[in-house]
Amino acid sequence: MKKNIKFISIALLALSCQSKNDFLFELKSSSETNIEFENNLIFDQDFNVYTYRNFYNGGGVSIGDINNDGLPDIYFTSNQSKNLLYLNKGDFKFQDITDISGVGGNRAWSTGVTMVDINADGFLDIYVCNSGDVEGDNKQNELFINQGDMTFTEEATKYGLADPGYSTHASFFDYDKDGDLDVYLLNNSYQAIGSFDLRRNERPRRDKDGGDKLLENQNGKFVDVSEEAGIYGSVIGFGLGVTVGDVNSDGWEDIYVSNDFFERDYLYINNQDGTFSEKLTDAISSISAASMGADMADIDNDGSADIFVTEMLPSEYERLKSVTTFENWDKYKYNVDNGYFHQFTRNTLQLNNGDNTFSEIGRLAGVEASDWSWGALFFDMNNDGLRDLYIANGIFRDLTDQDYLQYVSSEQVLMSIMSGEEVDYAKLVEIIPSRPVKNHAYINQGNLTFTNDDSTGLLMPSFSNGSAYGDLDNDGDLDLVVSNVNMPSFVYENHTDKKDSGNYIQFDLRGAGQNTMAIGTQIMVNDGNRNYYIQHQPIRGFQSSMDLRPHLGLPSNRNVDIEITWPDGTKSSLENVAVNQIISISQSNTPKTNPSDNNPIYSKELFERLDNSSKFIHNENLFIDFNRNRLLPHMLSTPGPKIISGDINGDDLDEIFVPGSKDSKSSLFYWSDQSLIQDDKFTIMNDIESETIESLFFDADLDGDLDLYTANGGIEFSKFIPYLADNLYFNDGNGNFTKSELELPTNSNFFNSSTVEASDIDKDGDIDLFVGERLISDSYGVPGSGVILLNNGKGSFKDVTSINAPELQDIGMITDALFVDIDNDNDEDLIVIGEFMGINILLNENGFFRLSKSELSNYKGWWQSIQAGDFNRDGLLDLVVGNHGLNSRFSASEEFPIRLYVNDFDLNDQLDPVLTFKRENGKFYPYDLRHNLIDQMKPLKKVFPDYKSFRTASIEDMFSSNQLDESLKVEVNTLSSSVFINKGNGKFDFHELPQKAQFSPLYALYLKDFDRDGDLDIIAGGNLYNTKPEIGRYDASFGLFLENDGRGKFEVPDNGYGFKLKGEVRSIIFSNSNIVVGRNSDSIAIFKYLNE
């Protein structure tokens, strides 16, 4: 404790040595503000973090004007002392009026706090949630009714709000639009975490005392309507955050609940009839695991509410390596299979797609890791028109410290802390590490990314919990108040008004009837360039509530037009309003306009999703890559299906071939009107042990029909297994196929194929082939080879690689390739891409291929797909290449690459691929945690006996210089999916695709002038679900339509022109005037092209 106080004091002193104008926010001293609140906690044998799991969760903050003098006041909740109310006297001076106002509280453990005018008398009341397993305390929540003279009376029982549960927070809103405020009461289960059987679905089991509650305001009395309204009051509800807002833009407020521990979060959609439907698993693909505080706001000014949820993933490398563990694949799948959904240890940012779905982009945004995080608040710190993100961090006793957990689990230590049959909790708690953690202040960069900015002055190491913002001095910027455990609270003055930048408009709303503060109002402001939105809901973050005056930052001082949608759906419009002022607006005194339809109007639809009558589902075989190699970040065993089309029977209609995974047959479909019908007679693929990775229809024997080549592979197979051999099938002209006896693609060894491409390489009139090798089994990182197969004109192929293209030997882990005349010399060159590879151009010189020295080979990526087209209409073919994307734990650049070291480090005849990244000190550090590395390489346990010894270890500390010198080393410096504009003479301009194209890995690309404007557009798809839990699924893509502006620059229209779908897209083709999409472990999706 003394060490931490000393550390914090030094940090405060360092801040005080700087000019007050150095930072955006100035930390005010208690001598300036007279605010001396500290949430001090003392544990004992009976009451501590082991006997009450939420002991260090901290308290909340509420900001509001309790005496209507125009100055917001501040209320703090305390866990073990009385709560405090500070009256704002102006100029950042406050007076403690707790005793005279009577709001100190009579319960033992207060948590969340909300200021709300509950009785519609025009004065803010204070609702305090109480919790804590304290003997002799009944935990009932308290409601302090404002008497209008700065005194309050406690009347929770009278209003029906004296709930006895472990209450965390309460959010007041008019869910049924009857004109008064109802409340969602967030509770935390009484039951011990270890007492649940996760195999039983206990979500529907209601806990009438301890479960969450929706209370309807019935003539001033709050009545529990949870069950009939469709709200879980579950025994497994571990609520730490409740956030209310209109997520589907229908004018009715919805509810997001973030649950701690194993239970998933809830998203309740308002049905507009007094009930809710819980729709999280329909709308969201991935969530935080131990969800804590949350907030909801429009981060990109598109008019839709986005959702942020905090977790506990550290942002500092050393803490990540010493306090973090992740679930293994088996535990993750166990939780998913038992209904707890896809939960991951990281913060999540759910970007609202405007169509009842969300894309989780926390990793792309740079906000996925902020340590032990509680309150999350979106607000415009610098008044530039973009909402920034503040996260309050810290835990006074860090129970996740891995060395501590190892220490106390030893038999010797367990015996030392046992006194008779009792545990000496004091001894056990005292040795838990305690280290302040920096709070985070992310500045919104305007492109769906944020930067944690030290210049804000908010990154103070602390044990912070609840926080609230408000314009405490009425100067037009938002100040910040933070509650801390065992240290003084923070009161920050925002100096944006003194920075000569940024503008604002603030609203003092007066509602009608019983909703005097107009909670639930939606405001749109237009400055002539764009719209800015805000939903008026002051209860947000962690256990806190904000200044009740909605605030919008603006980038310019131009006059604005304002549209206000009141809680009852009526609208008011104000035109040509001056900014940089607080506007008082009364719902009853402002002229109204008629409610308008909230549904967006789209300019065009190019695609219409068709119902697929086929019951076909692609069936991926069960194989866990991580069981074979614990260090793989992603599974490699889900590459299909890569569907193809062609007229195989001469009826002028396409058939569609769907390759099968291991143990599943490939399938053939034919068109019947706009439906695909499976051909049950198609039986060529009896060799179901093989997995067809890619296939090709082409006329191999020049008899005028389409033959079939299947490139087979799969990580499941040993490199000595003949199932890896490719197959060639000859067509008799009627769609009947006979297997060739050729050994393909090479007879020298079995070959794990990934791609097959066709071209008349030597211009002799027949079709030759390129086949690429994905990887060498059990040897991730070791480069594979490409093979050139020359056709003799009769469908017999010869491997001529060693003569015609020797540089294809050991070229890399090939994922895709393309024959195209990239240099405009009238023959087709070969472009090969893959993992840890550049974009390799092999120029065709009379049938012989020479690796070009193109700059494209320097773009080392995890490339997955490639297509070519003249995007800027200059007569030169450009390239679009699908990559890993930017919404990932991984990042790479030329200065800071990812590097893979491959060696048999532990000498057990198995290669160990150790993935690392470069830090600012020039050294490479492992992504994997200590226990993962030790599981793969047992000798490392002697090198790193504890987590402290490992947390700063670079690759050079792990292995000898000889081992590293002998290792295969491959790198990645580019992860963005990109366009390369051909400038001629081997020169290309590099352009990243738009941010929405970076949400997930792109495995499929299709080019066509879909909008008929004379240039090529792109349809793309991706996602990868089978990844290590610490990496997390890539599931944020819902298909992409990329519209070309005619100059090779692409934009993503908001509605995708109708092309939207879920799933792991592996292929996209155009057939029968339809877009046909192959998805892993899913059905075939069909979109009618409407512009044909």
How is the quaternary structure best described? single chain
* Beta-strand proportion: 25-35%
Helicity level, as a percent range? Answer: under 10%
Largest sheet report? 5 strands, antiparallel
Shape from CA axes? globular
Structural class computed from helices and strand pairing? mainly beta
Query: What's the total number of strands?
Result: 76
- The end-to-end span amounts to 72 Å
Unreliable spans are 14-18
Radius of gyration (CA) equals 31 Å
Let me know the average pLDDT.
94
- The total count of helices amounts to 19
Task: Provide an overview of this structure.
- With 1092 residues, the protein is mostly beta strands.
- It has 19 helices and 76 strands.
- Strands 57, 58, 59, 60 and 61 form a five-stranded antiparallel sheet that branches. A four-stranded antiparallel sheet has the order 1-34-33-32. The chain has a four-stranded antiparallel sheet with strand order 2-3-4-5.
- A hairpin with a 5-residue loop joins strand 55 and strand 56.
- About 0% of the residues have low confidence.
